Amino acid sequence: MKEILTFLDEREQEFDRHLSVARMLEARVDETARDGDIHVEVRHINTLKSGLLVHLYNIVEAISTRTLENVGQVVASEKPGQWTESVLKEWVRAAVWGSDEKIGEAALNNLTKISSSLAAGGNLDAFVVKGVPGSWDDSAISKIAQRLGCDLILSEPVKRAAYETKYRNDTSALRYLALRRNDIAHGNTTFEEGAYDLTLNDIDELATRVLPFLEEVTKSYDKFLENKDFLKINEEAA
To answer: What is the pLDDT of residues 81-119, one digit of tens each?
Structure first.
């Protein structure tokens, strides 16, 4: 997970740089364009703000998917007979029913291969824990952790900032971000209109709710794997 935390830190710095560029350009909105310069208009800043929302959501998605990939890799390093029931269910969800193949010869061969591996008692291939349908938000992230049996260890300020329903339609920060990003990415709104009602300070504040939450979730998974809480023997000891 340390590589993922490093990746998160790099993406956060990148986001801050892009936010700084947007602030610099916003300061030029009322300036008269000089020869050869492009006159910066409010619509340009609105387009940048939508881009920042998409960027922030992409960080959420990238960190979440990389974390679940890492979980599958580490879990697969232990024999499946030692896995907790919760983790075994996630493996079945990913490896057995995760295929797009229809029930037929190919699916039968796949199940036969998996059954043989289990019967042999050896290690299985790494797998990717499946997410939940829809977008990545705090509810989806919490549900997956609960399915795996991973306790999310969140500080009170981070928990409050992430789960507080203070945005439009009483949504949390991550839910609000996911909805806005979907509207922009799916063409339900234009880039000029997607964040017109947000200031750059609003977007900065949104990021301060989202990014610390991602960091503490990732650290929770790091502890989950380090303590091998995905093994029966540790579950029984607890």
So the answer is: 889 989 988 888 887 665 555 545 666 666 666 666 665
In the structure, what pLDDT confidence band is assigned to residue 124 with cuts at 50, 70 and 90?
Answer: confident
| Ranges of each domain in the chain | 2-78+133-237
Give a three-class secondary structure readout of the chain.
CHHHHHHHHHHHHHHHHHHHHHHHHHCCCCCCCCCCCCCCCHHHHHHHHHHHHHHHHHHHHHHHHHHHHHHHHHHCCCCHHHECHHHHHHHHHHHHCCCCCCCCHHHHHHHHHHHHHHHHCCCCCCCCCCCCCCCCCHHHHHHHHHHHCCCCCCCHHHHHHHHCCCECCCECHHHHHHHHHHHHHCCCCCCCCCCCCCCHHHHHHHHHHHHHHHHHHHHHHHHHHHCCCCEHHHHHHC
> Going by C-beta distance under 8 Å and a sequence separation of 6 or more, which residues neighbour residue 71?
129, 148, 221, 224, 225, 230
pTM for this prediction: 0.88
